[in-house]
Specification:
- Keywords: Cell membrane, Membrane, Transmembrane, Transmembrane helix, Transport.
- This is Transport permease protein.
- Its main location: membrane.
- 78% of the residues lie in helices and 2% in strands.
- It is an all-alpha fold.
- The chain has one domain.
- A hairpin with a 2-residue loop joins strand 1 and strand 2.
Length: 258
Amino acid sequence: MNMKALYFTAFKSILTKEINRFTRIWVQTLVPPAISMTLYFLIFGNLVGKRIGDMGGVSYMEFIAPGLIMMAVITSSYSNVASSFFSAKFQRNLEELIVAPVPHYVIIAGYVGGGVARGLCVGAIVTMVAMFFVDISIHHVGLVMVTVLLTAILFALGGLINAVFAKTYDDISIVPTFVLTPLTYLGGVFYSLSLLPDFWQGVSALNPVVYMINVFRYGFLGYADISVPLSVAVMVGFCVGLWSVAYYLISRGIGLRS
């Protein structure tokens, strides 16, 4: 077996393990996002949306649908890698994997691939839920696919970095609670940035989630608050940056070896 085949087998093994992990407990990993998003559509979209009226030239329900889908993808891809990678580190399974003749980028790709797989599955489920409440029309299919893939990769990498530094299981919940949730809710899921004063529009420009939701919404509705090329460039930049950080941490064994 040549080295490329060996590396692919290692990647496939990690990826398969990660997919089996979240599909085996699908009641805990795939069903809750569907229930949560159903409640969001019922409360914010149906009840509150009727009072708000149109936004961005479409109904409020149509406006928030892309943001809610993206919110589910972000949460799922992040939590999957954070919990799985930390469990492997806590149980000392990761030490054996690191000393194996497998490049560190293959290990990262395997875990990130598992997070992306869960994020895409949850995104598909939430999209099907959204179709019960609003007519889903896609303005640019390619852009939607690229955006959801880049977003899942970005937050899967973020989850891996969180797991590297985590000392206990409680540390896994700190970033989602105090960083991820505020960034997501202030990322323009429920409102258009054009409604904000100039100062707060400038502050929102510092939030990376704004760019992801913005370009994802454009893919569905053809409506955007921020330049689409700029949004894509920001996502690619964050993916490259977080991948570099993750590779540095894994290759140096930071937070992994006792």
